[in-house]
Task: structure prediction
Amino acid sequence: MLILDCFHQPNSSDFSRFKSFGLLLLCILTGFTGETVAAVNRSCFFNGTLQRHPLKTQFTKNPFTATQDNIKCNIHMAFSDETQRTFLVKQSAEIDRPIEFIQYEYVDDWSIVGRDSLVYNDLDSLIAAYSFEWNSIYSHWGKSQKVEYEFNAKQQNSVISYFEWAGDIGEWMATNKDLISYNEAGLRTEIVTQFPKGTARTWTDSIKYSTFFNAKGLETVNSISLLTISKWTEVVKTIFEYGAFDSLIRSTSQEKNPATQLWEGGSQISISRDSKAQATSYVSTEWNSVAQAFVNSFKILIAPPDAKGVNIWTGQSWDGSKWVNTLRSLTDYHSSGEVNSYTEEQWSDKTSSWESSSQTAYVRNSSGFPLQSLQSRFNPGTQKLEPVYKVEGRQ
Result:
């Protein structure tokens, strides 16, 4: 069973600076092998699967820890200033886990803003997730969103249904649902998204996400198709290439020209790896129709952990002639392997040095489960990191 993440962080203009890096950085920030990653109306393919987070957030286990699967979302993840990152909460029948998450914002003092609750069945499978918003005027929780999960005979998640609370009529209104198919190996091969149409609200196919694998079970192609006049038409696809140890070395994304029906343009991500197939850099290029070639866009350099075990990732953008520093992340880890803290720094051309930008710190139990996250941002006036948002998990 996959996992759901419910430690939210707020909408933040901080994420706008990631645009200079393109979609790769966003995917690396939010994606992890085999983990559920995505948001309502945002999607990513992982291990041949497309997952969505029901509660308006995207979430992360180890920020800036990328594997070959992280990069596969480069054509599927739409960037937004509203991008949010959260904690990962694993499903486990053996370890106590939070099932309720309270979100707070800090303005002079901490104020409650939201709550998420999870419901599991006797097989320890997530069957529902609820999102609530706090009404400070009337001091009560208001319903916001709901997601329900259905399973087939093999206990594979086969249907995900999304709802929003309609306060004017006092009931949950379905907004869309995903129908999920698997191959014999248990890999997800197709997800069809449906929306209710017309006054009768008839479920109607709209978008299809397809994934193709080689004999080793490695994803070779994924695509997005739209239903037009009762016919599925591919509009976007990504092709994956692998090297030593079956590690991803390149992904190429293309869009279909509706006039010529030819695959054109797009972007490409090339991954450099060491002798142990560990990634050392990611370079993203964009198709230039004038030059008829891929041109540099952004790059991420991955340094080996320092003496304290801190991982350092450096993001650089292409200025037309050279790579220039833009953003750096420093991540250290709990003994369980989960993140202890994640610090972002921005490059200052004025001082030619890295300057603090934001930090997220986590409080975990002995098993590594998150009990609290605290997000702080750098205040130029006080020259300090100051709290802005936190999430507390309750069992």
